[in-house]
Structure formats: structure tokens, C-alpha cells
Amino acid sequence: MKHWNAKDAKNLQEESSTATTTTASNGGTSTTSAQTNPTNQAHLQIGPQDATVIVGQMQNVTLRLHGTLSERVIVNFTQTNVTAGNEYVKVIPSSIEFDPIPSNVIDRSERVSLVGLRAGIFDLLAHAFPASDLIDQSQAFVRVTVAKSWKLITLSSTIGWAYFLAWTWSFWPQIWENRTRASVVGLSFDYLALNLVGHTMYAAFNCALFWNGSVQEEYLRRNPRGLIPVLVNDVAFSLHAVFATTLIIVQCFFYERGQQKVSYTARALMVVFGLVVFISAVLVATGTYQWLDFFYDLSFIKLAVTLVKYIPQAVLNYRRKSTVGWSIGNVLLDFTGGSFSMLQMLVNGYNYDDWDSIFGDGAKFGLGFFSVLFDVLFIVQHYVLYRNSNYIELRGENYPGPGSVTTAPPNGVST
Fold it and tell me: Which residues are within 8 A (CB) of 279 and not within 5 positions of it... i.e. 6 or more apart?
């Protein structure tokens, strides 16, 4: 699924271009409104503003110049982050001439073909010469992704949906286990509380960048040729995560819970996160912050929560010498999602020759790697370290003290 760019809403074929002629009161001298009204300047645009090209294959985009133009111009193209002889694509034609004579009004579209030469991600920029303040070139670019293979693109998309579904469904084994046991004993309340905070912050960030026009405009102002980084599946996952975590917390009020409660350490962390939200809101109210900065701070809270939320559950399992109450299905699905997420980044890095997307964005890769490491620890705790004690606890027997002899579960018994 492609990122949505707010500028894509301006369809090149639907925009109209008109030149209004006015008559001056002193002698009836005729002038065009483009000379006095900068809104009627000519516009140079490329559409669509993102394109995918396969090495050795061709992809077409449209270059359009429309508006009032008083002189002949020649448009040529440059590619960002390249040196001579090391281009990503071959542009056909390499330059295009636009002649507005005789009316000085032009509305002309030309097809531009891009032939993939090597994998990479770059911006193809169009430049009009001679340059003029009366030519708007703010949309004269296209974000081009050159891939090595369509098969790898399809593989990446399949992996992406696999980890999305795995992470989305990872909540439900825990919900089902709580229901069948009518108990939440063994499930860390610190983990639940921090998880709810993290997913709520993430959902707010995603919803703002996906739906709020002013936040989107601020993002695009700071990243003139950028793409909105939030997709519909990001919004769906985060909202579902808030709902599922809230449902588990509701179960804690109705099912057996033992003596467990949210620790003072977790409460202190949540107070700190609350202070960050409050201070950010104050900065927005005083004009120091834009709303985009506020939602960025919420996303940073989500990152911080992800780094610490697994620790309470791992410690609780260690103290109890048991993982009963902590769904292994949750762990296995989370492990699958995290592994597929990193695998997709590796596939994309190879396909687009864009390793900076992995190692240049260490936070995203690191968080996936960090969650997978904890999932491996939970798997070892469940199937290796505490397997015997899990079997005994599931049979309703008391766990023997240190030095006692235990009987291993018979073959074929699932824990």
C-alpha cells in the first residue's frame, strides 16, 4: 500500500488554467492578471507524485505546464543524490520545450518515460529555464522508487500483511485464556498498564497524521517532498490494540486476580509520561509548539513504553517460576509479527538498495529486534525453564519447594 501525499489530491488533468485580461483606467492599456496577481502564475507539475520503476523496465509520468507564460522555456530534469553517469533512471526525453506564443496562455501536458537503471529511492526534479518567479515549480517533482524485481515487491507486501495480522491477533490468545481460566493470575498488571499507555499514544499519533488536515499540512511544510508516513493499517492496528488491551483490563475486574496490583515503579513511569503530555500541551497553548510536535512527543512515549513494557512480565515469570496465565499464543504471534517486520525491512533494503532505511532508522529496527528478543526469552521460560512447574500448576498441584523431586510431564502433554 502506497503512502498518501496530500498534494496528490490536485489532479493534473482536472485543474483549469485561465488568464484574465483587465483594462486600466488610464488610456485602456491591457495587461494580463498574471503580471499583477501572483496566484495566476504558471504552474509546472509532475503527476503522479510517486512512481515505482523496475530495473530494465519503463514507467511513464506526466509533465504539465499551465497558466500564463510570457516567454519560451525549456524544462530539463535532475535526480537527487546522484553523480554524473550514476543515475537511477534514464529520462526520455531529457528536455522539453514549451512555447506560449502567440496567446501567452499555455496548458500542455507531455509524457515523460523513466527507464530503470539501478535500484534506489530518489526525487526526480523538473527545472524550467530561464527561471522565473512567475512559474510555480513547487510540485515539479516525483518521488521515484526503483526496484530490482516486482516479485520482491509482492513478497514484501505479503510479509507486511502477515506481520500486520500476526500483531493484530496477538492480543486474542490472552483474552481467550483469561476467559477459559476465569483468572488473570500470572499476567503482569504493570505490563497491561504500560501497554495501554503506549498503544493509546500510538493511536493518537496515527489518527492525527491520517485524518487531521492541519497536522498533515504542517508535516508537508517541514517535508516539502515528503509522504505522510501513516497508512490505514497503522490506524487500524493501533485502534484495535487500544480496544483489545482495554478488554483485558476489564477482565481483570471480573476474574480472579490474586493480590497483584500495578507497582509504584510503573505508576511513577506513567506519571512521567503524563507530565510529558501536559508540558507538550502547554507548549502548544503558548504557541511554542505546533500540534505536530505534540503528536511527535506522543510517539516518543510509545517508543519508550515498548522498550520497558516486557520487563515486568519477564520478572513476574521468574519470581513465580511459571508462565501459567501468560498466553504463549500471544508470545508466538508477537514473535511472528516482529520477525516478519524485520524480514520485510531486509527484503526492501535489498530490493531498493536502501539499507539506510534499516540502519539509518535504528529505532524502528531496534524496537522490532528488542521485542523479538523478549519473545525468545518468554518461549525459553515457557518451554524450557518452567515447563515442569507449568505442568504441575496446570494440574492444580502445589509447586514443590527447592530441592524437592518433581515428576516430568508425560510425553504428548501440552502446556
Answer: none
